[in-house]
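W.,

You were right to be curious about this one. When I first looked at the sequence I had no strong expectations either way, so I just let the prediction run and decided to look at it fresh. Below is the sequence, 199 residues in total, followed by the output.
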Amino acid sequence: MVTQNNITGIILSGGRSLRMGQNKAFIQIDGMPIIQRICSLFKQLFQEVIIVTNETELFQNLDAKVYADVIPNKGALGGLYAGIYYSVFKYSFCVGCDMPLINKSLVQFLIQNIGDEDAIVPRTKDGLQPLHAVYSKNCLNAIKETIDRGRYRILDFYSKVKVKIIEEEEFICLDPSKASFINVNTPEELISIKERKVS
């Protein structure tokens, strides 16, 4: 049986943060960098926490394992590949480093949905949420094949694996505002997030 204790938490921090103008991982919300907020939550949830970044020296003070991409310069898909590759466990829960409002109960709910699938992905009215999802090591070959074909979106490998989609209606009671899926890309979005009640 898969439990949160034998799952890895992966944080992807490879983006260039061009629209924000600074490294999004270290933007402070309520006096704490986003990356620290996520790490602290993941330490409560998971036995192993991995940060994937091309600037490994910036993350050494965090209580996590830090790795660079195995296949460099392939965006979020390349980062996901590295995280799954280095994970000690079969299953990993993966998020981006710019998601400050991740909901613990929602993460636990997604983990409880692990069966024999290769990916467990929530879908909101806005679409699939591939950077708030569970992936197994069975995805590695499919991701590598997708990258080799010059496709770098996470969604691009889903057709090659067994995906379980969790619809919004199934989890909305846990996160009614869907704050878990909000990421900070621009200074305007940062202002909006700071105006929210941060739990």
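Here's what jumped out at me. The first strand starts at residue 7 and ends at 12. And, maybe more interesting for your project: The chain has six helices and ten strands.

Coffee later to discuss?

I.
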